[in-house]
Design brief:
The protein has about 90 residues and is an all-alpha fold. It is built from five helices and no strands. The radius of gyration is 12 Å and the shape is globular.
């Protein structure tokens, strides 16, 4: 579901609602790791399309890093490298 969300066009109001839901998926420790990693990927893809959302992306990284979940840490590292090449 999260991957589809990033490929759709959203109005500014809707994109903020979408980000809220995807952020919940990414930051909820009760969600499966695959859901959280997919949601994190989606957040980065949305931030690439909407640079005004970069602070949200950064806040989520800061929130997730201390959890030390290997799959999330790996995805953060890969996405951050991609972001820096942008």
């Amino acid at each position: 579901m999260a991957h589809v969300v990033s490929r759709l066009e959203w109005s500014k109001d809707r994109i903020e609602q979408v980000l809220e839901v995807v952020t919940l998926w990414a930051t909820d420790p009760t969600e499966s790791k695959i859901v959280r990693v997919s949601a994190l990927q989606t957040l980065f893809e949305i931030a690439m399309k909407h640079p005004e959302m970069e602070s949200k992306r950064h806040d989520i990284i800061l929130k997730l890093k201390p959890e030390n979940v290997p799959s999330l840490t790996s995805k953060i590292r890969k996405l951050t490298t991609q972001w820096q090449k942008k």
